[in-house]
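TEACHING EXERCISE
Course module: macromolecular assemblies
Task: Read the component lines below, then compare them to the predicted structure of the full complex.
Student: A.B.
Group: 4
Components provided:
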Amino acid sequence: MRHSRQTSTARSLSTTASRPAEPVGEPQEKFTAAPPINFAKEDAAKAGSGDEKNIDLGKLRVVPASPSYFSSKPTFNDDFVSLSALLRKVSALPTVPNSEAPKVAWKTIDQYRIMTNEPVKTQRYHKMLHILRRLNTIHPSLMPPEVAEAMKRYKKASQPGDVRPNPVFIDEMGRAKGVGRRKKSSAVAWVVEGEGEVLVNGKSLTQFFGRLHDRESAVWALKATQRLDKYNVFALTQGGGVTGQAEAMTLAVAKALLVHEPALKPALRRAGCITRDPRKVERKKAGHVKARKMPTWVKR
Amino acid sequence: MSSSTCLRRFAKSSLERAVQPSIASRSLISPQASCFSTSAPRHALPTLAKASKGPPPKKGSTLILKKKKAPAKAAGRPPAPGDRKAMRKRIVLSNNNALEVAGLQDLKETDALSGISEGQVKGLPEDVVDALRAMEAFKTNQGWKLFRRPATLIRKETTELAGLLKQAEEEKKTVRRVFIGDRMSGKSTLLLQSLSMGFLRNWVVINLPEAYDIVNAHTEYKPLPGSHPTQYTQDVYTANFLSQIVKANKSILENTQITTNPSLPLPLPAKASLKQLAELGIANVETSWPVFVALWKELTQPGLPPVMLALDGLAHAMRNSEYLSAQVKPIHAHDLTIIRHFVDHLSGKATLPNGGAILAATTSSNNPRVPAFEFSMQVAEAKRYHPDNIPQWNPYKNVDQRVIECLKDVEVLKLNGLSKEEARSIMEYYAASGMLRAKVDDKFVTEKWSLAGMGNIGELERAAVRLRI
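Instructor-supplied answer key:
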């Protein structure tokens, strides 16, 4: 007989170290406790049985829902034990190499601590992650639903591959479109097969970019892969300055070129045409002359 | 400073002594005490300027930790007056470090106007180079100084123009063309090429090197008597212009005698040659304009070779000049006699009876905003290249009607980028000159061609020869 009267608010009476009241963002785990004692029912049962003995509430023995209740990290212990049991159960299933297993973003230790509201040690958590990774290597076609369900609890809300880029294609005119950004500038470039003609906002490369360096930046994706004589480019750029527009075009042309030739991705990455440069102007701060510059020191 | 003060003090005390001898005698013993003038003691102890103790720095002023350095003096002498300008304007036509290009052929009289050398680089013969130099047809910003000797690429537009010149020569027609195109697309060079074709074909070649120099009020001017509305002559400029004409067309002018009887303020010997006529204007600056008019009249007599008249920087000739009239109103460039002469021929108002060419090039480097001129060029370009879409002038805006009238039916020749074959040809020439150290193959040519904005020749030269990294 369980006579636990624990509710979710009564958890603050636990013996574990005090923790912040309600973490924001992560949902609190539902703590399942023993059902409350219905005294009326108890009384009726007692009357029905004809047993005249009084229940001494002070002598009731309360048994917690989990055997780990008296440990310092009950939820974590339960998780670990259940995952270990699950692994024991499914350990005979065939596996794939770790590299071929589906890519999963597991919760970080901090996220797990917030979820369970327990001071889990990093090493322990890593041990659990080890089990999880082993479970993840079960051959995907044979993955038991209970394992998939159990693993869901430890995955991040968003997984790699969740956000899929819009499909890229070459349209009926043979154009491939790419968009690139740098600083405040953005550029849209259309790449078609041709013989190296470039138009930026309707002007030739020399008319639009005065510096040779900027011209080279604008078509760098083609130049680095030696495709300058095989494609024509027309681009629209806006915002920012000249260099920003040129470097935004680098990315735009590279993306459009990848539509034509996806195998060029490593070469383009080596040429620095894939990664967007995230640097922007740092904001000015109060008390500073610029973002970081301090006013000149004055003696008096 | 202090020594001069002391000297002044001595002078002063001696003066006082002269005026007041009694005091002066005593002042010999103790000059400070006895002199009643207050000025002497005031001068006696010149207060030393306190070197270091100024007022405390004002609040908010910056702390200066470094001592101010005197500006570094340039080693040696500054250049003499005029040297800097001479250096700036110097035309260098050869580079001893560049290699002699084997197999570079000169442009010849026979093939100058035929299209057979299209796409080839041709050298300019020495006498033509001399004449072009005399005409100031070479510009400082062109790349002549990079190569052993002047040579040009005969491009598609050159051939087109050569065809026109040939037609003009054979049918005694007047070709009127304005060269338009992007910056560094070779407009002035095309002008130079046409001038050299004219020299090779023994035309009378007259070149106004820069319209800006005529209108920028750097030469003296005066009203032309008897003109209405008033026109203005520029005598010094015209005399210099005449001397350029004589230098460039020496043989023709020497061998041609005067046939008309010009009424000039100065006497001419009987049976004088045209050279003598021109030299009259050069020697007597004030008669230079009547002499030019007489010379032009002589040159347009039947039986003489065709005339080529060229001008660079046309936009400057289509706006108000920097000159002011007696009423302190700006003088329109068309009221300057030299410009007027050119513009009359360009507009077709005056023709060349022996045939010839009136050529003008626009400029993008020193390009004034002249809305009427820009519009006229747009219209002319549209008429030639896409006649279904001719722009209209905004009727609510004022327009310089003289410019519109003048350029009403002028034709343009637009310079586009080089083709890849032409680009390859010129880059092989660069490589043969040793100025381009790269293997000239298709890939290299296409890369430079693309980066030069689809074959803009100036940019091509810049990317291939000048900006070697």
